[in-house]
């Protein structure tokens, strides 16, 4: 008898799994429950939609519930919140948010793909009108509407991570002044501070009022709009984005007795299986094996949600595919700069107990042959094990040709290459695209000295 | 007693070795003999100098003999042609081309870095004024002068390889009409024909009169200039570039009893040593180990000349560094397209005896998120071993973000990755730089089905 598959969460991981299951078992019973109104949307595109760089917001919907149902034969139920998993009876409790009806749904194999949610710090006034988090398409629509309906001249962004930086650019793009308040002494806290020097200066040059090492104490209503009270003074503003991080939606799993990791996200094996064998998990609610640390870590990013969802789907129907793990490879466009990383930062490597001797090297070199027009400096920081000379991580910034160049190092990292191996890689060379010694070679050779 | 090092050839390989030797043994005796007037020049930049994209030709000289002597302490003797190697007495015979003086120079350790030369096919009239090959800076200067001194409205390029294609773009850039005559049924013959379809159409759209499967029979002088007689008719033209390939300068080595490979280039081991232990070779005159074929092959390109020269220098002074080998990674800009390859083409893989079951897959996918402006199609062809699913080679074309994306596959190839490994690589994703499934993932996943 074919199994019945139930998926909690209709975003990248859930819909990747659903699509895979449907392709592999066209006749199986398959239900996806999604709390919100949208499935499978490109969250990373939202800042560019807010700034009108992407004009048509519907393009951010990779898949609609209608298309999922009609074209892919997936029974997607939006507006349905799963409130409980009973792993003994293999049933879930579901709340139809529209009708208030409560149902129970049985499963043979379950996937928890509940994702993550924005962390809202307990700042007094964070619930005022005009204060937003940004995670879902609905959040994006709310922000867009608020901008359209109010005369917004100034926005305050709390938090200088990826989303904060992308929103700063988005606001400046539509001529809204921006103050960014960050508690730490650096933006983009997943990077080592030292490699961000030029990018940080660039953010300020672009007119962002950047306030580092600043704590937000309260958000007050004022006659002119909102007033953000910080450890450094007051900011008069028209709207506030709180982008201070995310947290895994793992409570359902925890309450069902499923093991969580130290991060609070769901522990899975390389077949995406939780501690309960017929319950799988994928996406931002789960930890993944870090290929350099060789331990489970929570880095919620879209690529692992998409790939992990697919692998979960394959394993749920009985194909023993392996998800190898992640490097935390990430990239963010910060105005004219691209900032990318893979593997461990120097800070992370020094904190990791398994490495005794950490070396780091930072170089700058031209993106193209020095004599060819349009060459721009690329700065690379390599982190290596001083004993084995194995690469442990890389960070890269520059105005062009950064992301895929960083990917070369992500691939080298996956293969466990040493600095010498990297220095000898046979990479493309032609004056318009790269110097004969690519910045990657330069970095590896300097680091290997 | 310190050894005496002699290097034949002052281009990338020779000067890389010399610089390395000088740094490692500051007090050793070290002489470089160079037949021409220039050392260490960026040959790959010459087409862009001819087209004035690079205005200052002196920038193509990475190192001048004066700077090499004064700043680096390397005794460089330009205008000196080595005419014989006597491996029994460890001496070479040298001709001072300026004075006619013949000298003998003893060595303890010798490097042959004589490079390659343009092949001139035995076409009647190939010696006429206005017919050029392009290999050295002097060739480039001759072509530039000829264009400056004559009213050039039309040029004919014989041969559709890298240099021919770059020269076609160079001519069009300075408003000179171009006819390209190629004997084969495709341009860029190191690529599989099928991946070049769009690029070939693009070359024609750019106004190049492309004549494939056409043989040049003669070059005649005519009243209006030159007349190229081909198997398809006559071409009235003002100048001709013969870019029909290169040949290794290995005669000196051969005459000294040094073993050559099937290609006619010098055989070396992974310490860059020839069959005579105190004679090394590097650069375009030598074969290199191909990392996929695991056999020696002659692919004369700048990256291996630079790296191999350095490794030769290290080994010559007694440090046993290994040159791992090459993949034949190469890239060429063809007007708006970038065309790149690494490892084996499908044709090469099918011809290689060690692979029994060859699979190839070609896909096109967007360079960025589909909803982000500026995404352009990237076409990728993967060649894999059907039995092991190991990647054997990759080719890529597109209008942007091609070269370093291809380098990801060069790195995967070096590591011996399978299609599944590549499909799971944790690569950068953000709407402005890549889709969540990079074209690389798409290609690997489709190929792995």
Summarize the structure.
2 copies of one chain form a homodimer. Chain A contains 12 helices and 25 strands.
Structure description:
The structure is a homodimer of 449-residue chains. By secondary structure, chain A is an alpha/beta fold. Chain A folds into three domains: 4-47 and 58-116 and 247-316, 3-Layer(bba) Sandwich (FAD/NAD(P)-binding domain); 120-242, FAD/NAD(P)-binding domain (3-Layer(bba) Sandwich), CATH 3.50.50; 336-447, FAD/NAD(P)-binding domain. In chain A, 24% of the residues lie in helices and 28% in strands. Chain A contains twelve helices and 25 strands. Chain A has helices at residues 12-24, 46-50, 65-70, 137-149, 162-173, 197-205, 251-255, 302-316, 346-351, 403-414, 419-423, 439-447, and strands spanning 4-8, 29-34, 75-78, 80-86, 91-96, 102-106, 109-112, 116-118, 131-132, 154-158, 177-181, 209-211, 216-222, 225-230, 233-237, 239-242, 246-248, 279-281, 288-290, 295-297, 330-334, 337-343, 358-366, 377-385, 391-398. In chain A, strands 3-2-1-7-18 form a five-stranded parallel beta sheet. A five-stranded parallel beta sheet of chain A has the order 9-16-10-11-12, with helices on one face. In chain A, a hairpin with a 2-residue loop joins strand 13 and strand 14 (225-230). The first copy, chain A, is globular. The interface between A and B is large, with 68 and 66 residues.
């Amino acid at each position: 008898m074919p199994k019945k598959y139930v998926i909690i969460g209709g975003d990248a991981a859930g819909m990747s799994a659903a699509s895979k299951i449907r392709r592999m078992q066209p006749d199986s019973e398959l239900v996806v429950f999604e709390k919100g109104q949208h499935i499978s949307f490109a969250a990373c595109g939202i800042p560019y939609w807010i700034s009108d760089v992407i004009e048509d917001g519907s393009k951010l919907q990779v898949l609609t519930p209608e298309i999922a149902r009609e074209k892919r034969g997936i029974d997607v139920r939006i507006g349905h919140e799963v409130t409980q998993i009973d792993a003994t009876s293999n049933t879930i409790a579901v709340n139809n948010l529209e009708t208030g009806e409560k149902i129970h749904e049985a499963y043979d194999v379950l996937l928890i793909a509940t994702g993550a949610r924005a962390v809202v710090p307990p700042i007094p006034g964070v619930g005022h009108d005009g204060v937003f988090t940004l995670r879902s398409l609905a959040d994006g629509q709310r922000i867009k509407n608020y901008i359209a309906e109010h005369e917004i001249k100034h926005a305050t962004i709390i938090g200088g991570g990826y989303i904060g930086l992308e929103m700063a650019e988005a606001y400046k793009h539509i001529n809204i002044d921006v103050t960014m308040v960050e508690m730490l002494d650096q933006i983009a806290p997943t990077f080592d501070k030292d490699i961000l020097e030029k990018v940080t200066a660039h953010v300020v040059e672009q007119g962002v009022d950047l306030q580092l090492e600043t704590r937000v104490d309260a958000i007050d209503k004022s006659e002119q709009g909102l007033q953000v009270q910080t450890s450094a003074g007051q900011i008069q503003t028209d709207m506030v984005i709180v982008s201070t991080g995310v947290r895994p939606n793992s409570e359902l799993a925890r309450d069902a007795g499923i093991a969580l990791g130290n991060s609070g996200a769901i522990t899975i094996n390389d077949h995406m299986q939780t501690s309960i064998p017929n319950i799988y998990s994928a996406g931002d609610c789960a930890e993944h094996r870090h290929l350099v640390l060789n331990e489970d870590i929570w880095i919620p990013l879209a690529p692992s949600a998409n790939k992990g969802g697919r692998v979960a789907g394959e394993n749920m129907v009985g194909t023993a595919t392996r998800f190898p793990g992640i490097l935390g490879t990430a990239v963010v466009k910060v105005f004219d700069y691209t900032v990318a990383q893979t593997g461990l930062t120097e800070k992370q490597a020094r904190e990791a107990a398994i490495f005794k001797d950490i070396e780091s090297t930072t170089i700058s070199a031209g993106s193209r042959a020095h004599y060819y027009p349009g060459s721009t400096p690329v700065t690379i920081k390599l982190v290596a094990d001083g004993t084995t000379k194995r690469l442990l991580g890389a960070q890269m910034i520059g105005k062009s040709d950064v992301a895929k160049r960083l990917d070369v190092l992500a691939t080298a990292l996956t293969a466990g290459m040493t600095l010498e191996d990297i220095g000898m890689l046979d990479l493309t060379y032609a004056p318009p695209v790269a110097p004969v010694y690519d910045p990657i070679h330069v970095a590896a050779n300097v680091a290997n000295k």
